[in-house]
Amino acid sequence: MTAFSDLSHDLVDRIFTYVRDFGTLAALIRTSKTIYEVFEARPKSIVRAVAENVIGNCDALPAATRLVRFQLTLNKYTVEYEGDDADDTDNQRPKDPGPTEEDALRAPLTRAEANLLEWHGPVVQELEDIFSWRNKDRASPKSTLTLAESSRFCSAMYRFWLYCEVHGPPEYWEDDEPQDFSQECANFFKAYMVDDIFDIARAADFIADLVAWCDGALGDPALATPPKDWFRCKSSIGPSTVLGDFKKISASQPENAEEGFFWRAYESHMRTLKLGPKVCKERLAKAILTEVVGQHDTCFRCHAVQGINLYGATTWPLLRGQLCQTKLFALMPGNLVRNVSENQQFLLSTHWGVFIGSQFDYTKMMDEIMDILDDQEHIWQKDKWYCFQCVEQLMKERLWRWWRERKVQEGKPVLPNCWYGWNCRTMTHRQQHASRLNHLCKPMRGDGPTQPQPASGPTAHTLVLLPAPATDTAGA
Ligand SMILES: [Zn+2]
Ligand SMILES: [Zn+2]
């Protein structure tokens, strides 16, 4: 068997380029004198090769290195000023991103920088997966970006991250401080080519899109949906925090917010380049990606062209951002929406709430809803794709049945049906009545039913297995 010591230096050097992380590199160097000598002879190129493996994309290394260098400068600065007056700290914080990407790459990596690169790599990779899933190929939760697209995405994301670090709003504003830094911030873009700037803006837009998704997924019915600009200014919390929120389904709050964060500076720079809003909008929409899979795909039910926005087997987890549990319950038929005890049971069962939100499985719920057999036309199929409006229609038709079945599975008592079913008005103001009878059923008496409309044609199902309706004069 050939020992490491017998291998040529070139071969050992080649082996180094396959090392996945800096811990393994440190261990490998200690294994033999030959290996140590090869490393000593070419430390810079070997460390660079490992750094490229760590971040998973060699073209993004300059942007990634510039980010970690600035972050460590910022850390050093914060430590030096620790204990000083907080206002003062904010005022003297470095506001320049430092050396260019080329210069950042030329200087050797320190251990601290390498550690930070190792921490950032998986964050940007996970963001790429989600970006690809939401913008390129809905059928795959893992990235299907081409090598070139991936390089553009990763570089853009590291650059936007750097922007957040350099120009994120300070914790405290000075009273006499102008709060519009767009001109100062616009200088940030001077280091980049115009195509790169559109890529950075698309990465920024994607981060704002994730912030908006989390807000929708949490779905606090007491709060109105904020405008798009609010999500954009909140994205100053940075890509890593936003990814954490997306995975946990939570909403981190920035220490301070700046109106028009990033976008005002970007627009100001675009004006200096004499690029009008229409051209900017078109180029932004096409940034990073050269091809979108199934761009012209249609909804199986209504045939509307919805492309990447279609929902199906692989994208049900994303539905929550548009249709959280509180919005789902609002799709119950008749007066059920105003049945407080039913609503509370539903939200509890589907784990609605900030801390336990992520535990509810949308894919499982949609599978079970698709399995409900009341569809002779075969409009609803697990392997087909649907637009959001049609998914809402499906929920109007079937959610109440799914919920009735789930209550049985959870061991809740099977109650006798109220004659007035989901049209009962008493359940909306008499708690005792609401919890004594089942209202997840079609009305047998009373006002004209406000039934959910079937997908097409007559309703094919009959609920033959329900217990006999209870006599309750309180209805309607
Ligand atoms: Zn549709
Ligand atoms: Zn009733």
Question: Which keywords apply here?
Answer:
51% helix; binds zinc ion
Structural summary, described in words:
The chain is mainly α and 476 residues long. The protein folds into two domains: 42-286, no CATH class; 318-382 and 397-436, no CATH class. 51% of the residues lie in helices and 0% in strands. The protein contains 21 helices and no strands. Helix 1 crosses helix 3, helix 5 (61-80) crosses helix 8 (111-135) and helix 11 packs parallel to helix 13. The radius of gyration is 28 Å and the shape is elongated. Residues 448-476 have low confidence and may be disordered. Residues 299, 301-302, 304, 386-387, 389-390 line the site of one zinc ion.
How is this fold's topology laid out?
Blueprint: H1 9-16, H2 22-29, H3 33-41, H4 43-55, H5 61-80, H6 86-92, H7 101-106, H8 111-135, H9 147-167, H10 182-186, H11 194-218, H12 228-234, H13 239-248, H14 263-272, H15 277-286, H16 316-319, H17 325-329, H18 340-349, H19 362-371, H20 388-409, H21 431-436
The chain binds zinc ion (ZN) (2 copies).
Region (Disordered): 83-104
Protein name: Aprataxin and PNK-like factor PBZ domain-containing protein
Organism: Postia placenta MAD-698-R-SB12
